[in-house]
Design goal:
Layout (H helix, E strand, L loop, with lengths): L35 H12 L8 H10 L3 E3 L12 E3 L4 H8 L39 H7 L7 H8 L5 H10 L7 H5 L9 E6 L3 E6 L5 E6 L3 E6 L15 E2 L5 E2 L5 E3 L2 E7 L7 E6 L5 E6 L3 E6 L8 E4 L22 E6 L5 E6 L2 E6 L4 E7 L5 E6 L7 E6 L4 E5 L11 E3 L6 E6 L5 E6 L4 E5 L6 H8 L30 E3 L11 E3 L2 H4 L3 E4 L5 E6 L4 E6 L26 E7 L5 E7 L8 E7 L10 H23 L12
Antiparallel strand pairs: 1-2, 3-9, 3-33, 4-5, 5-6, 6-10, 7-8, 11-12, 12-13, 13-14, 15-16, 16-17, 17-18, 19-20, 20-21, 21-22, 23-24, 24-25, 25-26, 27-28, 28-29, 29-30, 31-32, 32-33
GO biological process, one term: proteasome-mediated ubiquitin-dependent protein catabolic process
Pfam family, one: WD40
Keywords: Repeat, WD repeat
Length: 653
């Protein structure tokens, strides 16, 4: 393990500069015992806090319980015999939780001419200051009915409540009009179960995605292990393994991965090259045969997915004259930087990466870095291609609250983006593209998921003339799980098309995605959440499904059997970091940190769509729900669409 994790509490006085980037969530063990009273008095003296608020003791308890007490494992291969170490946080982090002014001078920040952006109200960690939409929004409905998000006919049938697939097939056979599209039959089949555990790990899972052909599913863990699972066969029945052993794909028990248990067929397990803190991102090549992964270092590694090779090929984005420089006592030279996100190009011959305010392009055939651009004023947390076919338009998303659009054909020739997407008021954790070169979505620490149309982006000139101002809360740190009440719901120059709310983008860089085009036309948007739930929105703004990971069944249950109605869970809140929707069947896989405050254990769950016969509620409950929805639709119709003198018929409705 790196030296930056080996810091004790005595270093609080030195205002250290240890690793403080995104996802630096601090772990703990249940047997941690700290003298809270002494720490409480010490911080009172340093911060000048003379009167304790009612929540102060809870804040300190949450703070010091979140410290990491674990056995270090130098280089990822230690024997666990090293002494226990404590990792600390800085005075700045303390004061973010205390809701007090920083020890820094107020002049360190640019003054706000309009109003004061100090934190006024911390509230609950999952406080929803702006509630989600309960009714369809006009802009979203226009997008749904515009033909760019799948078949319009299936959406019309849904609005008329004519979604019976059997009736559709019978009607089609009596009136031949060609084959029924796959989307028409499956667009309403949204995964609706809280899931069953299919894999567990002792380390946090940071990435969990299906391959492009949905034939396998892979995870990347904080212990720098990559696991690849076969999705062409169903999960096998759970078998209790002998102590410290696991069952391999051949059914033989071994101890090569003793902290990993699964009911899925394992195709391959790769021990990645140890980097800094964790694997931050990964991506598959267009042919699914190669995978790249990044950590908070200047090097991205490439490995093969399905063959027996375990070779790790380094892709170095650092300047050539800096690669041989001596490292500092932290293990990294002074000019080092971290890569947070990486992507293959459309042809698989280049790799684009984003990190400490920069974006890079590496030519794999020429084996050299070809582009380096100072793109943002803060970390680039995520990047993606807007058009998966040509790979000419690149999107970068940063903690400076902005998304920037770059034309690959002019990268390097110009340091200016083609345009900027303005709307978030806090840093952006993830950006994901529909793949058509027009629409993308982004998750923000302002607890908003925004949909963008690249044709409506802000020009670089307008951005430089005033739209570049950010409206971040000065002392907010999303890693501690508290989002204070903001001054604004959006940037004054907001150019997003739609906003989706209801989830918690806290604790880690929560990811979001479009639903599969093959089966849904991309008409849904879904995201993980720090509140332990998976949120699925219709494009029109409404939440159509919420899956609760706190009610996920254990690995001993059959994922395809009848869903069991579990009692109210007393488990710690699961933090769902990544979710992936299968395009061949209505199944989701979610990667959740399941270890309580420490978040030191992860569980992958399988969420299926199940018909009424396998759901935990009865036919009477379902009929009552349908009647209520029908009455609500009728009421809305009479209020908004009633024409004087018209009859209230189904046709008018």
């Amino acid at each position: 393990m790196s030296e930056y994790d080996r810091i004790d509490f005595d270093m609080l006085e030195e205002n250290d500069d240890d690793y403080d980037g995104p996802d630096a969530y601090v772990d703990e063990e249940d047997d941690t015992v700290l003298d809270l009273e002494d720490r409480h008095d010490s911080v009172h003296e340093r911060t000048g806090v003379t009167q304790e608020s009612p929540m102060l003791r809870q804040i300190f308890l949450s703070l010091f319980n979140s410290q990491n007490v674990h056995r270090t494992d130098a280089g990822g291969g230690g024997n666990g015999s090293e002494p226990r170490q404590l990792r600390t946080i800085s005075i700045r982090d303390l004061q973010r939780l205390l809701n007090s002014r920083s020890v820094e001078s107020p002049t360190d920040y640019e003054e706000d001419d309009d109003d004061d952006d100090e934190i006024e109200n911390v509230g609950e960690w999952h406080q929803a200051w702006f509630p989600p939409h309960k009714e369809p929004q006009q802009q979203g409905v226009e997008l749904l009915m515009g033909g760019e998000f799948g078949s319009v006919s299936s959406k019309i049938r849904s609005r008329r409540n004519k979604r019976n697939v059997s009736r559709m097939i019978l009607d089609q056979s009596s009136r031949p009009r060609g084959a029924i599209s796959r989307e028409n039959m499956t667009s309403e089949l949204i995964p609706n179960t809280n899931g069953t555990a299919v894999a567990s790990y002792a380390a946090n899972v940071y990435c969990g995605q299906f391959s492009k052909d949905y034939s396998f599913y892979y995870t990347c863990c904080q212990d720098f292990r990559l696991h690849i699972y076969d999705m062409t066969s169903p999960p096998s029945p759970y078998m209790k393994r002998p102590r410290n052993l696991r069952r391999s794909a051949t059914g033989v028990w071994d101890d090569s991965d003793r902290d990993h248990d699964t009911t899925l067929k394992i195709l391959k397990t790769i021990q990645g090259c140890t980097g800094r803190w964790t694997i931050t991102d990964s991506h598959l090549s267009p042919d699914n045969e190669r995978m790249i992964y990044s950590s908070i270092s200047p090097t991205v590694y490439m490995t093969s997915t399905l063959d027996s090779s375990v070779t790790q090929i380094p892709i170095r984005f650092q300047d050539p004259n800096q690669r041989q420089r001596a490292r500092t006592h932290w293990g990294w030279d002074e000019d080092s930087f971290g890569i947070w996100s990486c992507r293959f190009s459309a042809d698989g011959n280049e790799v684009v990466a984003g990190g400490s305010g920069q974006i890079f392009v590496y030519d794999l055939l020429a084996d050299r870095r070809t582009v380096k651009i100072i793109a943002h004023e803060d970390d680039v947390n995520s990047c993606c291609w807007a058009d998966t076919a040509s790979g000419n338009v690149l999107i970068s998303a940063s903690d400076d609250t902005f998304l920037k659009v770059w034309d690959r054909r002019s990268l390097g020739a110009s340091q200016k983006p083609s345009g900027v997407l303005v709307g978030h008021t806090e840093g952006i954790t993830n950006v994901s593209a529909k793949g058509d070169g027009r629409y993308i979505i982004s998750n923000g620490k302002d607890q908003a998921l925004r949909l963008w149309d690249l044709r409506k982006m802000c020009s670089s000139e307008d951005f430089d003339n005033g739209a570049d101002r950010n409206y971040r809360l000065r002392e907010f740190d999303y890693r501690y799980g508290h989002y204070p009440k903001p001054k604004r719901a959006a940037h004054p120059r907001d150019c997003s098309v739609m906003t989706y709310r209801g989830h918690a983008v806290l604790r880690t860089l929560i990811r979001c995605h479009f639903s599969p085009a093959e089966t849904t036309g991309g008409q849904y948007i879904y995201s993980g959440s720090a509140d332990g739930k998976i949120h699925i929105w219709s494009l029109d703004g409404r939440i159509v499904q919420v899956l609760d990971r706190s009610k996920t069944s254990a690995m001993t249950f059959d994922p395809s059997a009848e869903e069991y109605l579990l009692p109210n869970s007393t488990r710690n809140t699961v933090c769902v970091r990544d979710v992936s929707w299968n395009g061949n069947e209505p199944v989701m896989m979610s990667a959740g940190w399941d270890g309580g405050q420490s978040l030191s254990k992860s569980v992958v769950a399988r969420h299926e769509w199940k018909g009424l016969s396998k759901m935990s509620y009865g036919l009477e409950d379902w009929m009552e729900k349908q009647n209520m929805e029908r009455n609500e639709r009728a009421t809305r119709t009479r209020r908004t669409l009633r024409v004087p003198g018209a009859f209230d018929t189904e046709e008018n409705e």
